[in-house]
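Morning run. Coffee first, then this:
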Amino acid sequence: MVILSRLFGSELRVKMMRLFLFNPDRAFDIDCLAEKTGARPAGIKREAAGFRRIGLIKPAKVLKLTAVKKGKKVVEKKKRVPGLVLDQKFKYVRALTDFFVKTHSLENRAIVRRIEKAGRIKAVVIAGIFIGDQDSRLDLFVVGDNVKSSFLDRVVRGIESDMGKDIRYAVLSSPDYAYRVSMNDKLIRDVLDYPHTILLDKIGISSR
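And here it is:
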């Protein structure tokens, strides 16, 4: 992220570019962008203005649930609010998307370091968005023991912020993984029989 931040001007700019490029059909309002990037609305608006000037994004409407008071009750109501979406006519969309997919390989070790804090991690496998395969069932597969699920979920949310896209992930204990392999489980096949990259392997996944 440091290299990209220096190359593109700021970490926030990189995060926002990834959000729009990796979610080409999704519109975001300012609050959502702030939540996804962990940045303040003022910074979001400043970067968004720059993106609009070069034609990377365009205005769109976002359907959002908002709290509305009716008498003594507060109910949620769907409301259309101003948002922003990738302009897929921007001539460098494909080139930028390919670039950001490829640069994820520079951060693989950082991904493992974060996940290892969640427990006794035995294996980490990435697929899907990490390697540019949109058809993959999962993006992240973890095998570990005594894994703190709430901590791991926070780690994944942090990776999502850096990646710019929601991550589909699964975590199994070592015994559960061994059992599923012996049963030729579909989840294991869907991950390991298709394009993937093994970042950590202490249980012989690579020799499967």
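The mean pLDDT is 88. Good start to the day.
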